[in-house]
Amino acid sequence: MTNTKKLLLNDTFVVIIFAAAILAMPIWLDPIGGNYPDLLQKFAIYGIFAIGFNILFGLTGYLSFGHAAFLGVGSYAAVWSFKLLTMNVIPAVIFGVLFAGILAAVIGFLSLRRTGIYFSILTLAFAQMSYNLAYSVLTPITNGETGLQLARSDPRILDRLFSQEQAAGLPSTDLFGETMSGYPGFYFCAVLLIVCFYISMRIFRSPFGLMLKGIKSNQNRMRYTGLNTRPYMLTAFIISGMYAGLAGSLLAVTDPLAGAERMQWTASGEVVLMTILGGAGTLVGPMLGAGLIKYFENIFSAFDDNVLTQAFSFLPDSVLEFVVPVVGLFVGSGWHLTLGLLFMVIVIFLPGGLVEGFRRIYDYFKSGGGNAKTQSVEARNQAGE
Amino acid sequence: MDAIFIQILNGLDKGAAYALIALGLTLVFGTLGIVNFAHGALFMLGAFCAVTFQKLVTISAKVRDEGVTAFVAYKEQPYLESWFGDTGRIIIDYSVPLSIMLAIPFMLLVGYVMERGLIKHFYKRPHAEQILVTFGLAIVIQEIIKAYFGANPIPQPAPDILAGSANVGSWVGLGDNLVYPWWRLIYLCFSGLIIFAVFAFLQFTTYGMVVRAGMRDRETVGLLGINIERRFTVVFAIAAVVAGVAGVMYTPILPPDYHLGMEFLVLSFVVVVVGGMGSLGGAVMAGFLLGIVQSFASMNEVKEIFPGIDQIILYLVAVVILLVLPRGLLGRAGVMDD
Predict the structure, then answer these.
(1) How confident is the model at residue B242 (pLDDT cuts 50, 70, 90)?
(2) Which residues of B touch A334 (CB under 8 A)?
(3) Which pLDDT tens digit goes with each residue over B253-266?
(4) How does DSSP classify residue B327?
(5) d(Cα A340, Cα A376) in Å, to the nearest integer?
(6) Which residue from A minimizes the CA distance to B319?
(7) Which of A349, B67, B180, B328 has its CA 20 to 30 A from that of B286?
(8) Which of A217, A327, A331, A337 to mutate to test the interface with B (most CBs of B within 10 A)?
(9) Nearest CB neighbour to A265, from listed B125, B143, B266
(10) Residue B185 burial (CB < 10 Å; 0-12/13-18/19+)?
(11) Chain A residues with CB-CB distance to B146 below 8 A
């Protein structure tokens, strides 16, 4: 037992398991209808977003309501890199991360002067400002409501330098010749997700991470020990913003289009939901939450009355007439209702998120005796995904 | 001069809506210590009380249209009209103000159930969790409304007599061509009345005195043998009613739809925080201040100098105030500092 425990706690082992689970997603998501590239890409991208958010919220307890701004800036920077430089995704990703980092440094520098809800409102205010500006004054850069798109007439300096021929139609994003849509796009995002997960894990285990946890539990005491907490907070904020920028640029990589609605506060709210749902402050929780929300969003919103009628066709007609409209409230366009309810249930009964739920199940079976061993392993595995 | 006067009125009007929502929000925060993200949803529920009431009074029967003689035509006639004649017609005309009578008991009930059923269990939980659970609740309320009333805004007419504009210019001696919609003026007076009523309740009644004492030091008040929790439940219900009637009266200005609450929520949170968490006077002051600032920023003359300023001015003011005054305009030390 101790041996397996040691093995499970070994960082390298966790990363390998995580990588295997992510890369094998097309296989194990197939039976539950999650195996199509668009959805897989979203899993990976929002996973990165949530993991980054968790570095700030999970470690320091600072609840930012403005992370969508970094997502949006990352997208805009990436699309501009496609337009001006090259369709290769590497510069796009670098620019996305860079600009999000710069914006995070500015916003963080100002917002981190306050704590608690004042911090939340400051970040919210900055994000809403970015959103409103992107819609109005910054239209030359953001293309306003239409959203920033690629055009055939874009300069693309680097591409023109290296190749003379111009393909017909809009070019697509690529990684040294490999087109970044469909599964290759997913694997590109997945590799970055695994790298991000590894970095986040190193941060969690590092003295820097411990310092952040100390700030979370009692910032005053940290200050009394003679430590200036501000630089640590700012670093965490910038790292977290860069993760969001990376996620934003990946959104642009898989679909070269950037719109201002990505910066709206509801998008910030979404990443908060994902992180809490999975379990804030845990390593895999945010990824789990992001996957779950995106999965439900895609699967549930596709249901309509016809699908439901088929699904419940085994019921007698009189019951069917009653069941279909009631269930129909919760799926299709009403899937937000399910999300809201699910979310309330999680916050009320499992403040630690899904990860805490799995841990409780694990503990229950562990204390329950050996016959439940297989299930506890299962719970452990699920938590490790 | 005229333009400035109109902008002040506009600002007061917008500010009145912000102040009413922020008042309830900060009342709940000051007493229960709960950050209620579902407060915007309560505002929206109030607005939909007006919609429901209007639907109820205009339940119609098909009757023969006597005006058309060439063929047999039918028209919809509300039952109220055919039963009570002119009285019925007046009730239908005044459906928006009358629906307050539906909104008050309904919102009291909603507030009571919400506090006893959900909020009660979150007193001791961290603020982040309170925000999250009430946010979830707001989504649920919003989606239920969407399922029943659809996603489109439902216009609610003001009573005919108030549908026009008042000649405010002649009242203050600024010329006759200065007009302002009656209903907005009424909304302004109405919110002033509500704000006054809430303050009077807290300041001049024994009940309110106990509540204020509870806001200061809940434990001691409890030790004195007062069931402070029950009073706080009542306060929560009152806050819900304030949000609800604010929503009812706002329907002729802005046709309600299901995400009305969310739009106002973000702004009213900014208002509350700018005013200082838990400070009632601060919330009202910040509400009117931000309303006026916003309406001045949307003047064309200002927009020419600073393009896009009208879009961001609220947040800009909020950021500046929070950076200069750490606890907002009138916030007390030690509230929400961690």
Answers:
(1) very high
(2) 143, 146-147
(3) 888 888 888 778 88
(4) T
(5) 29
(6) A122
(7) B180
(8) A337
(9) B266
(10) middle
(11) 334
Cβ-count burial of A85 within 10 angstroms (0-12 exposed, 13-18 middle, 19+ buried)? middle
Where are any strands of DSSP class E within A194-352?
257-258
Annotated domain spans of chain B: 2-55+99-324
Cα–Cα distance measured from residue A239 to residue A54, given in angstroms and rounded to the nearest whole number = 11
Set of chain B residues whose Cβ sits within 8 Å of the Cβ of A277: none
Instruction: Say which residue the tokens 């995704």 belong to.
Output: A89
State the amino acid at position A298 in one-letter form. Answer: N
Sequence ranges of the domains in chain A: 37-265
The pLDDT averaged over each successive group of 10 residues in chain A (385 residues) is: 61 86 85 80 92 92 90 93 86 93 94 85 88 84 81 77 66 76 86 93 91 88 88 94 94 85 84 87 89 84 72 74 73 77 85 85 78 45 42
Which residue of chain B has the CA closest to A118? B273
Listed in sequence order, the residues at least 6 apart from A231 whose beta carbon sits closer than 8 Å to its beta carbon are none
Chain A residues contacting B, CB < 8 Å? Answer: 61, 63, 110, 113-118, 120-122, 124-126, 128-129, 132-133, 135-138, 219, 265-266, 269, 272-273, 276, 329, 334, 336-337, 339-341, 343-344, 347-348, 351
B109 backbone dihedrals φ, ψ, rounded to 5° = -65, -50
CB-based burial of residue B224 (10 Å sphere; 0-12 exposed, 13-18 middle, 19+ buried)? exposed
Could you tell me which chain B residue has the CA closest to the CA of A136? B308
Mutate which: A141, A216, A335, A348, vs B, most B CBs within 10 A: A348
Residue A195, helix vs strand vs coil = helix
Could you give the 3-state DSSP secondary structure of residue A181? coil
User: CB distance A344–B138 less than 8 Å?
Assistant: no
Gap between the Cα atoms of B185 and A185, Å rounded = 57
Q: Which residue has the tokens 């001696």?
A: B173
Query: pTM of the entire structure?
Result: 0.83
Q: Which residues contact B160 (CB under 8 A, 6 or more apart)?
A: B93
Closest in A116, A128, A136 to B338, CB measured:
A116
Question: A364 is written with which tokens?
Answer: 């229950």
Q: Measured between alpha carbons, how far is B37 from B17 in angstroms, rounded to an integer?
A: 17
Pick from B36, B133, B321 the residue to mutate for testing the A interface (most A CBs within 10 Å).
B133
